[in-house]
Write a structure and sequence with these properties.
Layout: E1 2-10, H1 14-22, E2 26-37, E3 53-56, H2 63-73, H3 85-93, E4 103-108, E5 111-121, E6 124-132, H4 141-155, E7 160-166, H5 173-179, E8 183-196, H6 197-200
Parallel strand pairs: 6-7
Antiparallel strand pairs: 1-8, 2-7, 2-8, 3-4, 4-5, 5-6
Length: 201
């Protein structure tokens, strides 16, 4: 049985990458931070699929439904492991600065089928989580949620929005963000080195 040491480096730092390779690490995955600059013109308004209602998150009422929808949406994500509901609620809803008015839910037939969960960290506007359940993919819902978030940030005076994404996303998330006008701002590379169980003790 083995485990691995992991290190992250900025994709542009060649010396760090060479050092890890020389030490026996291998590149396993890359992630992007993508960004869009929102100028003075209003962002493109979202085009919602038929049957979808968008509304803000209601603490206490939407906790479990949002958690279940995001767990379902990210079951295809590399390295995803199901997190317990109470842990998710503590980390996402009970942290300082949580603003439910920045969480946007897409609801169809009373069920949460997608969400854009946004945050403001200092002067950075983040789409922290954007997910759509499998049966609603391919209908433009992800793009609509993203554009809705851009509009909301713009209305609050935000002129730059960022998010993180798996560079090899199985759902084509990177292509979606590019179509929305976002670009790669930074690249983070994950390197791992396998260790035998005897060495890791």
């Amino acid at each position: 049985m083995s485990n691995a040491l992991a290190n992250w480096v900025l994709g542009a730092v060649d010396d760090a990458r060479r050092l890890l390779l020389d030490e026996g690490y291998r590149h396993v995955r890359s992630f992007y931070r993508m960004a869009i600059e929102l100028d003075d013109a209003p962002p493109v308004e979202p085009d919602w699929p038929e049957g979808v209602e968008v509304r803000t998150f209601r603490p206490g009422d939407d906790d479990r439904a949002t958690y279940e929808a995001m767990e379902e949406a990210f079951q295809d994500h590399w390295g995803h492991g199901r997190r317990e509901f109470e842990d998710w609620r503590h980390r996402r809803l009970e942290r300082p600065g949580f603003d439910p008015s920045l969480w946007h839910l897409a609801v169809a037939d009373g069920r949460v089928v997608g969400a854009s969960l946004c945050d403001i960290h200092g002067d950075e506007n983040w789409v922290s989580t954007l997910g759509v359940v499998r049966e609603w993919r391919g209908r433009g819902l992800g793009m609509a949620l993203l554009r809705h978030s851009f509009v909301e940030f713009h209305c609050r005076g935000g002129r730059r929005v960022v998010l993180g994404v798996d560079a090899e996303s199985l759902t084509g998330a990177t292509r979606l963000y590019e179509r929305a006008g976002m670009h790669v701002d930074r690249q983070y590379d994950r390197y791992e080195k396998e260790l035998s169980s005897s060495r890791s003790r």
